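I hope you will forgive my troubling you with a question about protein structure. The record follows directly beneath this note:
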Amino acid sequence: MRASLLLVPGLLALAACSENSLVTKDGTIDDVDDSSAPDIVVSPESHDFDALSVDGVTTQTQEFTITNEGDASLQLTSVELDDPNAPFSLSALGTVLVEPGGSTAFSVTFQPITAEEVSATVFVQSNDPDEPNVPVALTGSGIAPQIELDPSDYDFGNPDIGCDSQVPMQIRNIGNADLIVTELRYVTAAESEISVDPNVSVNGPLPWTIPPGTDSSVTVLMNYNPLDDYADNGYLTVVSNDPNQPEAQAHQAGLGVIAGVNEDIFEQPLRGSTDILWALDWSCSMSDDIAQVATNFDIYVGTLAGLDADYHVAAVTQDDGCILGDLDYIDGSLTSDEQQTAWDIMSAGPEGAYTEMAFTLMEAALSSDNIGSGGCNEDFYREEAKLNLVGLTDEVEQSANPWSYYVALFQGYKADPNDVMFHAIAGDYPSGCGTAEPGENLYQAVVATGGTFLSICATDWGSNMTELAESSAADLSSFALTQAPVPETIEVYIDGVRTTAGWTYDSGDTVVRFDDDHIPGGGTTINISYMVAGDCSS
């Protein structure tokens, strides 16, 4: 350290004195060396930390030494990170004043929070005139899973109400350790028509383990089925072992558009009317079977009467389609003896060319000539009644046209195709039974129209006839809608009073169907309103 200098006042006026010289006590001039300065050196100049597990516990610390290689005191003014959010932390300095040749130190601790490689810079600021701000580069990375949801934000747009939309969402692991998904939750501010399908048939049950790498992912399905014209928003929350984002979220939105609204109005009849036409095979092998029907005919019409059905029953065996006897149908206005007598006459044969062609006999009986004004079956057929067609045979149905032709033919008689139903008593399908051949073609027509197929080999004909009568009675429980509805929007009113119980919607037949103990009474008005399902093909 230099000695203190005492300045002599008289010498200050010497013109020869240099500004870099001082006058000593004894009067001599001594030069002053003003080149002394601190010189900072930070070691190491940078550091790359090891990859560490992201577990909230594991850390690694590196010490950095600050040395003063100059000949003046080094004053440290700050040591700080350029990014305060980086996963690095600094210790305190040993001292802020470092004499020439001396040193101090600070340390940096790395604790990763994600699998991503991160970098930051420590700036050491001092009074070193040449290097007032020394940078120290830091890098590090973690070992952890890292979740990515794609798409993280999806708008279904504006589909018609009642139309389903679906978009796949990928759950990826862009980290470097296994991602384990433990839960899926769907959260909405209010009831939403957006939902998530975990796609378990492909992914299996939770939890799911997704290894790192862009080729590994799990796909779930986001579904949207708008039921109203209010905006829908929701968030899929995926819970996993990602330490940085344990509950990742993806947003979905959509807004349904009303394609139309409709109301169908029905008047419930006091009695359900049904026209039942039997076509009988009068070949020589059928006499016992026709006798069985005649023997159990009282059970058949008794069941119809018990159902309060407004029925017409007739049988056709003749090639011209005309019903035999003075009466061309049987109904509840006749006594039981009169009904039995009429049936015996109608079903008496004899065999014609169309014996094993039930469809052809039905076509002849219901031809416009026969059911029109002055026709032989004029009073049998009613426009407003259900039409039930029953084939009785032990042979394969042999009409000239395919069964589908006859189904379409008779359904064309009615405004509502559901008002036509085929039934059959025939050989078991597909293998037959006893000496009876399988009821080929009749069976297909029965299935296509939802009718009843009974075995001609059955021993309990009373049960057969009861079941057939029940399935032939007019259905007062079902109401066919004129347009395809959005099922969730259907509202049912009986005489102006809304009812929410006792009925279901059958999408297969587009009908509202009441339970047996909730069938609207005769004379009531049934109003069914709904939103019309939109065009979902686009």
Observations:
- Confidence is low (pLDDT under 50) at residues 1-25, 27-32.
- The chain is about 15% helix and 35% strand.
